[in-house]
Amino acid sequence: MTCYRGFLLGSCRRVAGGRAAALRGPGAGGPAARPRLGGDGGGQRHLGQGQQRELAGCGSRPDGGFRPSRVVVVAKTTRYEFEQQRYRYAELSEEDLKQLVGPGCPRRCVSVQNEGIEVRLVKRRDYDEETVRWADAVIAAGGDGTMLLAASKVLDRLKPVIGVNTDPERSEGHLCLPVRYTHSFPEALQKFYRGEFRWLWRQRIRLYLEGTGINPVPVDLHEQQLSLNQHSRALNIERVRDERSEASGPQLLPVRALNEVFIGESLSSRASYYEISVDDGPWEKQKSSGLNLCTGTGSKAWSFNINRVATQAVEDVLNIGELLPYSYELFDMVFWKELVTNEYNKSLLYSPEEPKILFSIREPIANRVFSSSRQRCFSSKVCVRSRCWDACMVVDGGTSFEFNDGAIASMMINKEDELRTVLLEQ
Q: Model confidence over 275-296: pLDDT tens digits?
């Protein structure tokens, strides 16, 4: 609770004056008007259907229309295709597989009108850097996961990546166009041609890896199935260290994080041991459940859920801290709980275009040996030295790198890594 107690005090004092005036003001024959709970109606701002809830002030108007000549469409893997791949060696017929999966496997894809645009449709397995170089623009037809996949291969900051939510009932589609364009994508194309949109330059995190025993080869987590062998490997304390490479200099990893980077032990039940340096400051030993480093885009995702405060916790703090400035007859506990909760949670969000990293320590252990001076903080550069047994560094939930004892990761924002995306009005 102490991490946000100061915030609660400040929020309560800022609003107390307005609240008192509303309660004591002239003409108070009827119920007093409540101060607004933030600029847009409260803490649900991070939710919503697609881009209409982006933070205000983002994006820039294009100089003219945008008409690509070659487009690659990255289609999401359906449940049917997943099960088909999963049971490819089992003695199951197509009909048996359909019965196993059952209904609810719609196979949708974005249709691009034949207006002189050459289209190439690819799945996850066929999506590579060569395909990206061929295209003038990339369209992710799926949800946020498909958008992250499509963006992971794009290193050219001038190549647009456009997300279309093909299944709004099952996917939030925060990174995608508004839901109305799911079934009217030709309308979106016409707006692109006329320049009726904004470019949103989403910042991404660049990663360097150095030290002993590093392996810069990425692992696609979507291609792996959690198996007993993986658990056995994680539990094998006496790992052979002769296979580790000699110390090496910093290596730029071939991916950029659009949402976040997570660092921690592969087994969530094991504490992660590491050292951290923020903005080239002193190294600090820490033990925790791992750490999350996010961009403005990712501040609405996992990072938000790590740091958000619940109204129940706010109520406990208000009661314990005796922050109630008025008697219970005049005090609206529901109002104050919502106010403080919304204000605190809104402070966790920032623009996708802001060039800074928000790092968050998950469940830090504080004792005589280990400390956590800053559980959550904005920074421009974060370095982490691993002291873990079987840890990983996961980029956007889909690409993993080994990150064991001796490895050092440096994460920072570079303008050359911006991702060019599109904002369309409803």
A: 999 999 999 999 999 999 999 9
Cα–Cα distance, 249 to 275 (Å, whole number): 18
DSSP 160: B
> Is residue 268 situated within a structural domain?
yes
123 with 170, same domain: the answer is yes
Domain co-membership, 99 together with 228 = no
Reported for 267-276, long-range contacts at CB under 8 A and 24+ positions apart, including other chains, are 267/231, 267/234, 267/235, 267/390, 270/389, 270/390, 271/365, 272/388, 272/391, 273/387, 273/388, 274/384, 274/385, 274/386, 274/387, 274/388, 274/391, 275/384, 275/385, 275/387, 276/382, 276/383, 276/384, 276/385
Q: Are residues 227 and 358 in the same domain?
A: yes
3-state secondary structure of 282: coil
Sequence-ordered list of residues with C-beta below 8 angstroms from that of 24, at least 6 positions apart, any chain = none
- Whether residue 185 lies inside any domain: the answer is yes
Domain containing 387 equals: 205-236+245-308+350-414
Q: What are the tens digits of pLDDT across the range 194-220?
A: 999 999 999 999 999 999 878 888 888
Sole residue written with tokens 């170089």: 133
Residue entry with tokens 């645009």: 117
